[in-house]
Design a protein that fits this description.
The protein is α/β, with parallel strands linked by helices. It is built from 13 helices and 5 strands. The chain folds into 3 domains: 22-161, Glutaredoxin (3-Layer(aba) Sandwich); 172-226, Serine Threonine Protein Phosphatase 5, Tetratricopeptide repeat; 227-312. 52% of the residues lie in helices and 9% in strands.
């Protein structure tokens, strides 16, 4: 994780439209990975329509932009950790949640190469902070330094207190026991235990689509966790004579970084030229990634057609 140090390294001008005055921002941000509406909350969703308001807010107090994706287990975990440390600042820091899948232009403007990624914005100037999962204990020193920099820049505004009752989200439905066991294992970083919990859930109910997708996500997280150099891993998969393992790991890294089409195309190329066990292993991996993305996703629909053609 890199410390914040790059002022003005990212150009936000293509998205930051002239904003309304910060205290009269429009209420209600469209969908996203789970924030509140409007631009004055401590935790808000960010879309292209509200991006300018959030950048304007950074002229009063520091803002964190977290680019997340429902397809990566780390995103949900990081969001929880970020909300904890941001709320500890009692309105002196805002967290903006960006859905990297539905807001690709924001991710592009922030030069996001993988999800999750967190960028700080001070006085309209972005500073890349880190990519990947970071726990609350690691986050606090970074936030402390960010708040120090904000104070030195005179960005000492404070958001209005939130009405806990009016702003509270409805309680989430209680998870089935094995699903709850899997989530708890993911939160503590025990992917083996999480996978075992979801396998047990599938043994009880083979039609459990949520357990199937969750297991595929856990297996993906377990495979990419040891990767320290994504670019080198992808290069290894591109190399002439690359092993099947190298090609599939490169596809995993691409998928985890939000580049699903590239990952699908890479595996489809292997399927077209392989036979026997290698062909089947590639097919299984591709179907696992389909499960994570969702059957209705347009890229999955297109890749399924290509898969059928490659197999038959």
């Amino acid at each position: 994780m890199s410390q914040p140090s790059l002022y003005g390294a990212v150009d936000l001008s293509s998205l930051a439209r002239p904003a309304q005055p910060p205290h009269s921002a429009p209420g209600g941000a469209a969908g996203g990975p789970g924030g509140a509406g409007g631009s004055t909350g401590i935790v808000v969703d960010v879309t292209e329509e509200t991006f300018g308001d959030v950048v304007a807010r950074s002229q009063e107090l520091p803002v964190l932009l977290a680019v997340l994706s429902d397809r990566t287990p780390d995103s949900a975990n990081l969001r929880r950790e970020l909300e904890v440390v941001v709320r500890e600042q009692a309105g002196r820091l805002q967290l903006g949640l960006v859905d990297g899948d539905t807001q690709p232009r924001i991710a592009q403007a922030l030069q996001v190469e993988q999800v999750p990624t967190v960028v700080a914005v001070l006085g309209g100037q972005p500073m890349p902070l880190f990519a990947g999962m970071v726990g609350a204990e690691q986050l606090r020193p970074v936030i402390a330094e960010l708040m120090r920099m904000a104070e030195q820049s005179g960005l000492t505004g404070q958001l209005p207190a939130e009405d806990d009752e009016a702003g509270a989200e409805p309680p989430e439905p209680e998870l089935p026991p094995l699903h709850a066991e899997g989530v708890a294992a993911i939160e503590r970083g025990d992917f083996d235990a999480a996978a075992e919990a979801y396998r047990k859930a599938l043994a009880q109910n083979p039609a459990d689509a949520e357990a199937t997708a969750a297991l595929a996500q856990v297996e993906l997280a377990r495979r990419v966790a040891p990767v320290t150099d994504p670019a080198a891993t992808i290069a290894a998969g591109d190399a002439e004579g690359a092993s099947l393992a190298d090609v599939l790991l490169a596809a995993d890294v691409e998928f985890a970084a939000g580049r699903a089409k590239e990952a699908f195309d890479r595996i489809l190329r292997v399927i077209r030229v392989s036979a026997g066990d290698d062909k089947e292993a590639a097919r299984v991996r591709l179907v696992e990634l389909f499960e994570i993305r969702g059957a209705a996703d347009p890229e999955v629909v297109a890749a399924r057609r290509l898969l059928a053609s490659a197999l038959y």
